[in-house]
Amino acid sequence: MNYTFAELHLHTSQVSGCASVSALDSPHIFKDGGYDLICVTDHYKYTTFWKFNDEGDMSWEHRAEHFLSGYRTARSVGDKIGIQVLLGAEICFDCSPNDYLVYGLSEEMIYEYPELYRWSVEKFSAFAREKGLFFAQAHPFRNPRMIRTDPSLLDGAEAVNTHDTVHCTPEKDQQRAVEWVKENKLIPLIGQDFHDAENMLGAKTAFYGDVKDSKTLIKKLFAKEFDIILPN
Q: Using a CB cutoff of 8 Å and minimum separation of 24, what contacts does 58-64 make?
């Protein structure tokens, strides 16, 4: 069977201040690591856009361009070296301490719907279903402040986040994530939550067949047409 090996949780230093790897470099790292596809899921939250407040620039267009800059740079590099780059986001809503992964967002949607981080989880969940997006909770047991979201609002959740392994989230809490996802019949995701070179452990989502675009990605996620490959 032909597989598309993917990373579904990746940050760029251009947009996510906690990341140290540039969007110029991450496509090369993953291409060399045997991946066919990466989803850029930069942080989308109030603090992502702080610098615009300091500069007195309240234009959402400029903020949207900033958010998209990591993805656009990575996509440009990916096109040249032969690795596919798709747009995603890791949203943190003002009303919640949690982080959520979203797949299927287009550049046009980023411009058209400003400040999604100000929405409630319930409102965004309804929006995601209306627009055909895939909405998942990231690392639901990372630390005590994380709150498990009502599963009826979600499509999936990270059963495995290898960044938690690197940064010492207790093993029992990592196992709780696996169990919680299974108990609530959510679609299980795996992500390296790539910020730094040390996060590259080799975990992969192995999609069955080709993934040509975000629509195909979402279709395969909902249909569970993939295997999870744990790090060596």
A: 60/111, 60/114, 60/115, 61/111, 63/114, 64/110, 64/111, 64/114
- Other beta carbons within 10 angstroms of residue 185's beta carbon come to 7
- Give the pLDDT confidence of 68-109 residue by residue, as tens digits: 999 999 999 999 999 999 999 999 999 889 999 999 999 999
Residues of the chain with pLDDT under 50: none
Give the span between the Cα atoms of 93 and 100, in whole angstroms.
9
Q: Chain centroid to CA 149: how far?
A: 17
Question: Which CATH architecture describes the domain 3-229?
Answer: Alpha-Beta Barrel (3.20)
**Residue carrying the six token digits 């390296």:** 192
- The backbone torsions φ and ψ at residue 152, rounded to the nearest 5 degrees and listed phi first, read -65, -15
**Phi (first) and psi of residue 192, to 5 degrees:** -90, -10
How many C-beta atoms surround the C-beta of residue 56 within 10 A? 6
d(CA 26, CA 156): 25
Query: What is the rounded distance in angstroms from the CA atom of residue 131 to the CA atom of residue 119?
Result: 16
Contacts of residue 166, Cβ cutoff 8 Å, sequence gap at least 6 = 198, 199, 201
pLDDT on residue 144 = 78
Segments making up each domain of the chain, as ranges: 3-229
Write down the pLDDT at residue 231: 87
